[in-house]
Every structure is written in C-alpha cells, then in structure tokens.
Design a protein that fits this description.
Layout (H helix, E strand, L loop, with lengths): L7 H19 L2 H20 L20 H4 L7 H22 L1 H26 L4 H7 L8 H11 L5 H22 L2 H20 L13 H24 L11 H4 L7 H9 L4 H11 L3 H7 L1 H14 L3 H26 L10 H10 L4 H19 L12 H26 L4 E2 L4 H7 L18 E2 L2 H27 L8 H12 L15 E4 L6 E7 L2 E5 L9 H15 L2 E7 L1 H9 L3 E12 L11 H12 L3 E5 L6 H15 L14 H4 L5 E6 L5 E12 L2 E12 L7 H15 L4 E3 L23 H17 L1 H8 L5 E9 L5 H12 L5 H16 L37
Parallel strand pairs: 5-6, 11-12
Antiparallel strand pairs: 1-2, 3-4, 4-5, 6-13, 7-12, 7-13, 8-9, 9-10, 10-11
Helix pairs in contact: 2-4, 4-5, 4-7, 5-7, 5-9, 7-9, 8-9, 8-10, 10-15, 10-18, 12-13, 14-21, 15-16, 15-21, 16-17, 16-18, 19-21, 25-28, 29-32, 31-32
C-alpha cells in the first residue's frame, strides 16, 4: 500500500517547491553574485595559506592607507562559520530585498551600506579617540569582515518602499538590535553595521525617487508603549550580552557589573586563594562561581530577567508593570551609586568577594564618563516612565496581585523549609559545615544571585553535586515560578477591572436612559460625581481649572436638570468653572434660562432603523459598496475585541497603527476611542473579513441602554486597511444597520465629528447666526486638525446614509473663561500633545480669538452646509480612506 508521503503528488509538490526556491534565488542575481564572490575569494585566499599578507578586513585604522578594505571586507570571513552565516544572510534577507526593490537599487544600496558603513565607523573611531579614548583604543584593533554591512544597508533602504507601519516596524527592530550591540558589545564590526543601516535608511528614499522625510513623533498610545517596552528590553538584554561577550568594550558595557553577576574568575586569583588554607571558603566560593551552569547564569541575570517580563507588561499598558519597572530602575540607581563609591575607594580588592569591583575598576580606569553611565541610564529610564505614566492605565482584575503575593509568599515559605530540612541532612557536604542557625540566616540569600553584593562572601558553600543543586535551585525555582505567574497576570483580561465609581456608573447607565454617548463616560481619564439621590452621575475631568464634562448628566430624564444644577454647585465649592460638552437641545434650554452661554460643537447623526431601507438613488453608493464586497468575497462578522482570535486582534492592531502612523500629532482621546476603549466585552466589533481571513476594516459599536435594555448602538472606532476593500466602511455601516434592525434595535448613531462645523439643517428658514469668539476658536481648531484627522470630511461621509441630525452643544457659564475652556478642550482631545505643539496651537487659537468679526455675516463653507438629504458635495469627494473614528 502506497502512503501519502510516497505518492506522486507529494513528490510533485516537493519538486515544485524546490523549483520555486531556485526561481526566487535566480531572480536575485546580485545576491547570488555576492555569495559566489564570497566563496571564491575565500577559497583563493585560503590557497595562499600564510603567504598572503595583503589586509582584507577593515579596522579602525585601515583608511585611507588600505582604502580597498571598503570593498574587500565584504567578501572575506574569518572562518567557516562566518562564510556560512554570510551565505545565509544573502540567500534569505538579500534575496527577499532584491526581489522587492530590484537588482539595480539593491546593488546601489548594498554598495552604499558597505562603503559608507566602513568609512563612517573609521571616521567615528578617529574623532572619538580624543573624547572616549579607552573605548576607541580597545576597539581600533577589532576586525570587520563579511557581507553583513551590505545586507543591513540594503534592508534599511528597502523600507522606503514599505507601508508606513511595516517601515517603522523593520527600522525599529533593526536599529534596536544594532544599537544594542554597538552600545554594549562595542566592537568595530558593530559600529560598521549600525552606520551601514543608517546609510541605507538615508539612501533608500533617494533610490525611490523622493527626499528623506523627518520621522514623525509617536502618534499612537499603543506605539508609545511598544517603544518604551523595547527600550526597557534593550537595557535589560544589553548588560547580559556585555557579560557573556569575552571582549565587550562598548560605552555601556560597564553596566554588566550592575545588572548581572556574570564575573569571570581569574585562574591565577583562584590558584592563589586555594593555596592558602585560611582562604578555603573564598576558594570554594570562587570554584562554585566558576562551575556555575545555566542555573547559575539565570540567577546572575535576574534583574534583566524581571525587566524583560515587565517589558511585556509595559507593551500591554499594564500599570503594575510600570510600577515594577520603576521600582527596579530605582533600586539599580541606588546600587549604581554604591558601586561607584566602591570603585572610587583607594583600597585595592584582595579577595574573590571583591573580584567584581576590581573588574569594574579596571574597566573604567582612565574613563571618568563611564562612571556616570551606570547611574544615569536607570535614572533616565525612570524619568521617562514618570513622564509617560498616562500610557499605562490598564489594571488587572480586582484581587489579581493580592493573590499573586499570597502565592509567592507561600512558595517562598515552602522552599525555605525545603532548604532548611535538606541543608541539615547534608550539612557535611558544605564548607564549613553549617548549623541550624547558619542555614536559617542564609535562607534570604538563596533568593538572590550568588555573590551579588560584591563586598560579601557566602557564609558557607556547597561541595557536592546534591548540595550545589539545593544551594542554587531554591532561587531558580522561586523566580521561574514567579516569572510564569507574573506573565499570566499580564495575559489576564483587564476589562473586568473597574474602580468602584466606574462600576456604579455602569450600573446607572444600564438601568436608566443613558443616551447615545453615555458609554464613553466609562473610558479611562474620567472622574465621577454622583447626585445625592444616587440615580444620576456626571463624568468629567478637571483641566486647568475647568471641569469639562463628557456629555450631559446620566440618569433618569426627569432628574437631569436637577443633576445639572447640583453639579454646578459642586464645581463652585471646589473652585472650578464647569463646562458641559456634547449635550442635547433640552439641557441647553435649561442652561440658557440660567444665564449660561452655548455653542454648537457637533451634530449627531442618527439612523432610525424602523424606517430604514437602502433603496433609491440616494443610497446608490451604499448598494455599490455592498455589491463590491460580495464580489470580493468580503463578509461582515460580529465579534468583540477580547473574544476575537489572536490573528484577528493582530490585524485590528495593524490597521489601527497603520492609520495613526503618518499623523504629525498624537492620537486623540476624550470622545474618540482607540484600541484601549475597544478592549471591552460590552463593545461589539463588526469586521470586514474575506475567505482568506484577511481583515479589511473594523468598526466598534457602543451600547445604548434604556431601562436595562439595549435599544441602539453608537459607532465609535472605524478604520480600514489601505490595501483592503475601498468601500469597506460604507459596507460595514450598512451591514450593521441591517443586522441590528433584525435584532430589534430602534436606532444606530453614527456619532458626531468633533471640531467640525455642523450642517445647519434648517438654514432655509433661519440663517446661520453671527459667529461668536468661541465659534471662531472651535472652527479654527477644526481647521488646524482637518488635514490630519479629516473630521469635516468624516461629517460629509456620514451624509451618505441620509441621517437624522441632532445638534450637540457646549455649555459654559462665564464667557471670560473661554481661553481656559479652549485649552481644556484641546488638552482633552490631545492629552499627549508635546509642549512645542501646544504652544503653537495656543498661538493660533489666540490669534483667532483676537480677530475682529467682519461686518458681513460669516457662513460655513459650502461643503459643510449639508441638509438632511444632502449628497456628497461635488468637487469635494468624500472617501472612507481617511476615516479614523467618529465620536
């Protein structure tokens, strides 16, 4: 009987796969040619044996005397492993890059990376010799050889042709890796590869026919977390690399004495210790460290291990990871200060216990700058974490870390008992033999790396294999279990972790008439005021003395005006000026009767599902989008972000990051949701997905309750893939309306476009009013942000669905507070705005406020005056390509 593996089909598949691989390689002639030159030159040079004296490898002193090393160093390796590694890079990365950008561009980028990389590294060594003499002197004798520089240059050049998201990802990973090696290992080859990558990143846009662009600042909260997590991970891995590398000379390599306890024992020192019977204990301790295997290495890099775990938590926005990282960095800063003081002491170390100080003293001698680095790096990271505290608001479910602390306490107690009991039974295998008191006093040290404090020697050391396993295994077991348990807390869903106020607010929303924007009050950043009756609340945030609310009071409709007055009195008691943002017409009438001023800030777009049918000429674009989706095999699927599969979650993240990647200002908040707000089981997601499981677009919908029942849904998050179905946004909204109508919902809200001039649906009978100072301020803010976020285009896009418009207002009691209110609104939408951006925006808004209103009445631009049935304005097409998310 013939098996499936032996069948002709399997053989044909393997043959086709092999032919495809060969075809890909053959389609990359430059990469293939570089590989052949590498092996031919290596074989030819090997034939000369020791008779070949022409230098081919590059060093810090090669240029200009041995100028040919700019080229020759790429096609020569030290040993067989170097040739194999170079071949692997050319056949994988080289082939893929060449097929992407073409052979000519690949060749130009490879030459630029190789030549400029070697030249820049050589120049850096010459210039830095006067500033960082010790480092450059040790590095100048290092060699560079192999095709790694040209591959790095070509790879970074190819990123110019990638999408914004993947360009940032590739550059981030490559530069993080190369920077880590250059700063910690510090070899000449590391510098060459780093400069080659920089050259490739600069040359790539020129080869693509455009000028290099200045990188935009981080615009996404998720991206900011990833960058900080990567920085923490690099500073955790770097000292380990420096500790394991035999000749690490990088400017930050001295940090291995702070982060790790990887300290090679000098054989001569070991022999001296073991000859003297009086130093038998120190001899045994040095031997123990010398023969420490994987377990000992694990304990030696414990701080780095913990920081790597916490970096994963930082990536997920966890507050506990932020606090834990800050605590470890603070402890390392204190240890750095103690260590530096020890190095600067004039007394020379004379025992194995101070071997680490001696090594550090030798590493920093003659180089005062490196004495400050161990202190400055943890301090700078601590400052960064403190300044970006708002990026890490996610908390684990209630009681998570209380249970974790109980688990670890019980684990430490059990392991301590095991160590105590087994130590008493095997006391004879220790030097010197410990008693019960000595074992008990030694238990805390078992949970720390061996000899981590340089000035302390162990009280006793193991001699046999069994006692060594016991001696080292206690700490390894404890921290391994701790790491797994800690990682699990980061993986636990955080959506069921709410403050008591938020839980109370959610109960009121689901019990009474919350309104279409009420669910936004549960988002992070809001504080809560509850009415004395306990049936109403107001969500607000205090910014610059302004109590800015998110919507009207939530609760029974008949108690809304009373809650309004009570919250106003609460603000007066606290010295705040209240400002109600995005409230309906009914509350505006009550506020106007009390002497408040108002300005229309948005116009909510409502689709009444009971009478909705996408028929007639006015819905032609919607039907076309639905038909195109069916032809492309794209369907709409309901899910939620926490319940979605990992591939779907990953694609949603990619779509979101791709949209915000090109923004020049940070991602907005307040009434605009992001991935953080999407991660809620109560929020439904409708995704456009094809038969290949590719997500083309995603929308999120917030529930609208009345008397405990969901009666409608509000559109919040809407983003599409740039290479996906073009009309996927229209398709998803139409699909949601049809599906929710079948579920019995009364309406869906497409929300409002913030900072966009709303359409005056009744303009035929009542002309637009003369703009006030606040009208001009908000209009200018919207104009400033329109090229970036497209709020006004978004408002026009919603007109395709022929919605019912409901005006939303901002209410404020004191016109003198307008500048402070404008600042509060801007900071609410842009909480991560940099100081320079804020000053520029403030100057623009101030000029707007001071501008004298023309005598003739100002009317909104024609493209923004959209009646209820207005189609997209001719000459100003509305495209869903720029949609980011309505609110």
């Amino acid at each position: 009987m013939t098996t499936h593996l032996d069948s002709p089909d399997a053989a044909q598949i393997g043959h086709r796969l092999w032919r495809r691989v060969l075809g890909n390689v053959a389609a990359a002639p430059v990469s293939l040619g570089c590989m052949l030159v590498l092996w031919v030159s290596g074989a030819a040079i090997a034939g000369f044996a020791d008779g070949f004296r022409v230098p081919l490898a590059a060093t810090g002193r090669s240029f200009p005397e041995h100028w040919w090393v700019l080229f020759s160093s790429a096609f020569w390796a030290r040993n067989l492993a170097g040739y194999v590694l170079g071949t692997a890079l050319l056949l994988t990365v080289g082939v893929l890059v060449e097929r992407r950008i073409g052979s000519r561009r690949f060749a130009a980028a490879a030459v630029a990376g190789q030549v400029l990389g070697v030249a820049a590294a050589t120049g850096f060594v010459a210039v830095a010799a006067g500033v960082m003499g010790d480092w450059t002197q040790q590095m100048s004798g290092h060699l560079f050889m192999g095709p790694t520089a040209l591959v790095c240059g070509a790879l970074l050049a190819s990123t110019a042709s990638m999408t914004t998201l993947w360009r940032r990802r590739v550059r981030l990973v490559v530069f993080a890796l190369l920077g880590l090696l250059a700063l910690y290992n510090g070899g000449f080859a590391d510098l060459v590869r780093l400069f080659a990558a920089i050259a490739g990143a600069l040359v790539g846009p020129l080869l693509s026919g455009r000028k290099p662009r200045t990188p935009h600042p981080v615009s996404s909260r998720h991206e900011g977390r990833v960058l900080i997590a990567l920085l923490v991970a690099v500073t955790a891995i770097g000292p380990v690399i420096a500790g394991l590398a035999p000749h690490a000379v990088g400017p930050l390599s001295v940090l291995r004495f702070l982060f790790t306890n990887i300290q090679p024992v000098d054989p001569q020192t070991l022999q001296t210790l073991c000859v003297d019977p009086a130093q038998a204990k120190d001899c045994a301790a040095a031997q123990l460290q010398l023969r420490a295997g994987a377990g000992g290495t694990f304990m030696a890099v414990l701080p780095s291990f913990l920081l790597l775990l916490l970096a994963d938590g930082l990536r997920r926005g966890r507050r506990f990871a932020w606090a834990g990282t800050l605590l470890i960095q603070g402890a390392l800063s204190a240890m750095a200060l103690v260590t530096i003081i020890g190095v600067l002491q004039p007394t020379a170390p004379d025992t194995a216990a101070t071997e680490g100080l001696a090594a550090m003293d030798a590493a920093v001698s003659g180089h005062p700058l490196t004495l400050a680095l161990p202190l400055l790096v943890p301090v700078l990271i601590s400052v960064l974490l403190l300044s970006r505290r708002g990026l890490f608001p996610v908390q684990a479910p209630h009681g998570t870390y209380r249970h974790l602390a109980a688990l670890l306490t019980a684990l430490a107690f059990v392991l301590g008992l095991v160590y105590l009991g087994a130590g008493v039974l095997m006391a004879g295998d220790f030097t010197p033999a410990p008693g019960l008191g000595e074992l008990l006093a030694d238990i805390p040290d078992r949970f720390l790396p061996l000899g981590y404090m340089f000035d302390l020697s162990p009280a006793f050391v193991p001699q046999s294999t069994a006692t060594t396993v016991l001696y080292e295994g206690i700490g390894i077991t404890f921290w391994a279990i701790t790491g797994v348990a800690l990682l699990r807390t980061f993986l636990r869903p955080a959506h069921d972790r709410h403050s008591l106020d938020e839980v109370r607010a959610r109960a009121i929303i689901t019990t009474h008439d919350g309104g279409s924007l009420a669910w936004m009050t549960t988002w992070p950043g809001n504080s809560y005021w509850f009415a004395p009756s306990g049936q109403s609340f107001v969500a607000y945030r205090v910014i610059g003395g302004i109590a800015l609310t998110l919507g009207p009071p939530v609760g029974p409709g008949e108690a809304q005006e009373e809650a309004f007055d009570e919250f106003t009195a609460h603000c007066a008691l606290n010295g705040w000026s209240p400002c109600f943002y995005s409230v309906p017409q009914e509350l505006k009438k009550h506020a106007t009767a009390s002497g408040w001023a108002s300005v229309q800030v948005a116009q909510e777009t409502i689709l009444d599902l009971k009478s909705l049918t996408f028929k007639g000429k006015k819905f032609q674009d919607i039907r076309t989008a639905t038909n195109n989706a069916a032809k492309a095999g794209v369907r709409a699927e309901w899910t939620s972000y926490p319940a979605a599969t990992l591939p779907v979650q990953t694609q949603i993240q990619e779509i979101s990051e791709e949209w915000v990647a090109d923004k020049k200002i940070p991602e907005m908040g307040f009434t605009l949701g992001s991935l953080d707000e999407l991660n809620d089981p109560e929020v439904r997601c409708l995704i456009a997905i094809d038969n290949d499981k590719k997500v083309h677009a995603v929308t999120s919908w917030l529930p609208v309750y009345r008397d405990g029942t969901v009666i409608g849904w509000t559109l919040d998050f809407i983003r599409r893939r740039t290479t996906g179905l073009r009309a996927s946004a229209e398709f998803l909204i139409a699909s949601a309306a049809t599906s929710l109508k079948e579920e019995g919902c009364e309406f869906i809200s497409l929300s409002g476009a913030p900072l966009a001039q709303p359409p005056h649906s009744d303009r035929t009978t009542d002309p637009p009013p003369v703009p006030t100072g606040m009208d001009r301020l908000l209009d200018q803010l919207g104009t400033t942000l329109e090229p970036i976020y497209g709020f006004r285009s978004l408002l026009g896009f919603k007109a395709k669905f022929q919605p019912r418009y409901v005006p939303l207002y901002m209410l404020y009691p004191d016109p003198a507070a307008l500048p402070a209110i404008g600042n509060a609104v801007a900071r609410a939408y842009l909480p991560e705005m940099r100081f320079g951006q804020g000053m520029s925006l403030a100057r623009t808004l101030l000029r707007t406020l001071l501008t004298k209103t023309p005598k003739s009445r100002r009317t909104p631009p024609p493209a923004l005056i959209l009646p209820k049935t207005a189609p997209p304005v001719p000459g100003n097409p509305i495209s869903s390509d720029t949609l980011g998310g309505p609110a």
